[in-house]
Amino acid sequence: MIALPVPVFTAAVLAYLAIRAAVLGETSRMVIAFVAMCAVQSAVIALNQHYGLRIFGPLQPVTASMLAVFAYLTFLATSVRPLRVVPDAAHLLAPASVAACLWLPPLFLDGMLMLLFAGYGTAILFKARNGAENLPLVRLEGSERALFLWRCVAAAMMASAAFDLIISVAVTYGPQGIGPLLVSLYSVAFLLMVGLLSLSETVSRPLPQDPVPAAAARASHTAAHPDLMHRIKDHMRTSKIYLDPDLTLRKLSRQLSVPEKTLSASINRATGENLPRYINRHRIEHACELMQAGTPVTHAIYASGFNTKSNFNREFLRLKGLPPSAWLAAHSSQ
C-alpha cells in the first residue's frame, strides 16, 4: 500500500472542493480561485519536499506570497468592494518582490514572506475593525459570522508569519531535516484551515447583481438629510426591504441615497444596535405576525428574510427571550 504524503492529500482535497464549487456554481469565482491557489501551493510543497523535484524550490515562496495576496483580494471582493484594475493590480508587486529576493541571501526572502503575511493579515483586520459596517457586500444576516471567519483567516496569516520565524530558527539551530518537516506540517494545516474557512457559505456565496441604477449609486455619496431615521423607518414600512434575504449595507444605502457609513452610524446612534441587528428585529417582528396568523414556523423563517434556521432561532431568542415554539404557545393562550 502506497502512503501519500500529507501535502498531496491536502492538495487533492482542496482541488476537489474548488472543482465541486465551480461545478455547482454557488460560490464566488474569487473564492474558487483562492482555494485553487491553496491546492497549488500544497502540491508545490509536496513536489519540492517529498518527491525531490528541486525545480519547484524557487517556486514555493513565490506561490506562498500569492496566497497572501489572494486572501486579501478575496476578502475585498466578497466583503468590501468589487475589485478594480487600479489600484488592485499593484498587489502583483508582492510576488514579484519575493521572486527578486530569490537572488538575495535567504534572510531577505524569509523577511519578505513574513512581512507579506503579517501585512495582509493586518490589512484585513484593519478593514474589518468596525464590524459589519465595514463589510457592505456581505448579507446582513450573516455579517457577524463573516466577520468572525475573516478575522480567523487574518489571524492564521499573522500566525504564519510568526511560524516562519520559528522555522528559520529551527533550520539554523535545530537538527538536520527539521525545517522541511515543520514547513510541510504547518503549511498543510494553514492551507486546509484557510481553504475551508473561505468556502463557508457565509463568505463564499456570490450576491446577485445590484439592481440599483448607476444614478442611484452616484447619489449614495451625497450628504444625508437630517431626518434620516425617519426616512429609514418609512422605507422599512413601505418597501419591507428587510424581507430581502440578500440585503446588504450597500444595497440599502443606495436605495436611500445615503453613504454607507452615515447610514450605519445613524442607526447605531438612534437605536443602540448595529445595522444587522436592526434589520433582524424587523424580520423577527414580521415572523411573529406570520406565526400568530397560522403560518408554520419553518415557512415564517424564510418568508421573513432569514437564510438559515439557526440564525433565526438565535435572533428570536435574543429579542423575545423564548424559543419560537415556546413564544407561540405563550401568545396563543392569551
TrEMBL record:
Annotated protein name in UniProt: AraC-like DNA-binding protein
Transmembrane portions of the chain: 30-47, 59-83, 103-126, 147-171, 177-199
UniProt feature coiled coil, ranges: none
InterPro entries named in the record: Homeodomain-like_sf (IPR009057), HTH_AraC (IPR018060)
Statement: the UniProt record of this protein carries the keyword ATP-binding: no
Molecular-function GO terms, alphabetical: DNA-binding transcription factor activity; sequence-specific DNA binding
Species of origin: Roseibium hamelinense
UniProt keyword terms in alphabetical order: DNA-binding, Membrane, Transcription, Transcription regulation, Transmembrane, Transmembrane helix
Residue ranges of domain HTH araC/xylS-type in the record: 226-330
UniProt xrefs under SUPFAM superfamilies: Homeodomain-like
